């Protein structure tokens, strides 16, 4: 966990500097460390990511369904309104 915190701090510092092209490298470092942590915990990092992507897709589809049911478009809703549906989806899916 210390290495994850270290890499997160380095990424935050790079973001604050305005990202002089090292953002991609810092993101890569963080992903690598998180993947290593997952393996250390006997978790397949690719499988864990795929499960999260599936969960995200289900929740986003819920929001798309709500927008479609309303007869409006995404642009007709505020971020707060969309966030309300996101929180609903989290509670249901």
Tell me what the structure shows.
The protein has helices at residues 2-17, 23-40, 45-70, 79-92. The chain has 2 domains: 2-43; 47-92. The chain contains 4 helices and no strands. It is an all-alpha fold. It is 80% helix and 0% strand.
Helix and strand arrangement:
Layout (H helix, E strand, L loop, with lengths): L1 H16 L5 H18 L4 H26 L8 H14 L1
Helix pairs in contact: 1-2, 3-4
The gist of it:
The protein contains four helices and no strands.
Domains, number: 2
- Backbone shape: flat
Strand composition percent: under 5%
Number of distinct beta strands: 0
Distance between the termini: 29 Å
Number of discrete helical segments: 4
Q: What composes the largest sheet?
A: none
Q: What is the residue-mean pLDDT, rounded to a whole number?
A: 96
Helix/strand/pairing category: mainly alpha
Give the helix level as a range of percent: over 70%
Rg value: 18 Å
Helix and strand run: HHHH
State the low-pLDDT regions, or none.
Answer: none
Search tags:
mainly alpha; 4 helices; 80% helix; flat; 93 residues
